[in-house]
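Holo prediction. Input below; ligand is tryptophan.
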Amino acid sequence: MQHEKPACHIILTGDRTTGPLHLGHYVGSLKSRVALQTTHQQYLLLADTQALTDNAHDPARVRNNVLEVATDYLAVGINPELTTICVQSHLHALADLTLLYMNFVTVARLERNPTIKDEIQARGFGRDIPAGFLCYPVAQAADITAFKATIVPVGEDQAPLIEQTNEVVRRINRQAGHDVLPEARALIPLVGRLPGVDGKAKMSKSQGNAIPLSATPDEISDAVRRMFTDPNHLKASDPGRVEGNVVFTYLDAFDDDPAAVADLKARYKRGGLGDSLVKKRLNEVLQAVLAPIRDRRRALASDRGYILDVVKEGTAVARETTDATLREVRAALGLFSLD
Ligand code: TRP
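Structure of the complex:
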């Protein structure tokens, strides 16, 4: 197992289990996780407890997506021999640490967290913010520190959560009088975030503008056909805009022939290149990217027992690590022990 890798940086990241993963996750994080697993000790957290903080009214959704997300991980090439895949709700030390850390964080600080502020707005909570939601940054600090992760690959929007984690770490270490927990660093992907097929800034299942990793060939072609281009590019002969044109953004992200893409862009800008030709190329590119993932996904989905075993084993390994950290933190703070 991965415990034999040389002790270096520990990586932890995770996904809320609210829906299957999509192309935005693939370019933004999944691809780099597949690369990182060969050089680092890596844990992936199926964040079902965090998913409940804004889905308490729909527990079935959260439950059903735990193995869906795990299937996505395996389908893109996460290797359970190299990466530990574990379920948040079954790691009780995370809940204990969350409760402990709550005493080292103020409500005012949580309310000022830019990620939380944006998300409260987006969800229209107004004053009726679930306490669990307001406190999820504390739980995320528990996730990160329980694994003693020093690198946390996340989207840019999550950077304030890592900052808040490090504040908790410093407070705990100060109280303990020595460094019981390490600080962590956010690893933000260099590639920009993939826009939705409708041109909105973010691809998201809830916005209906995502292409899931499990998309069928027809669903891919449909999405490409609907894709936002340049609304002023009415005739093929018109000069077109490449900036903000989703088709070109996707070609930049997925086409492995950048010279050909540059050539298409030049022709499009000059005028004389119709949307349908560019879309035809993108369709071919996306079909080629997703076909092997979909095939692996289908083969895996027919063996639910295997996925369950992977997650069970990963959770057992993660339980040892997180329980050990909880014991260490409690001891460092001088808390009561029956031993
Ligand atoms: N907040 C992350 C998201 O919304 C999921 C997550 C939960 C996470 N715990 C984590 C990410 C710990 C990194 C580290 O996608």
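The pocket of tryptophan is lined by residues 12-16, 45, 47, 50, 140, 143-144, 152, 154, 158 (CB under 6 Å). That is the main takeaway for now.
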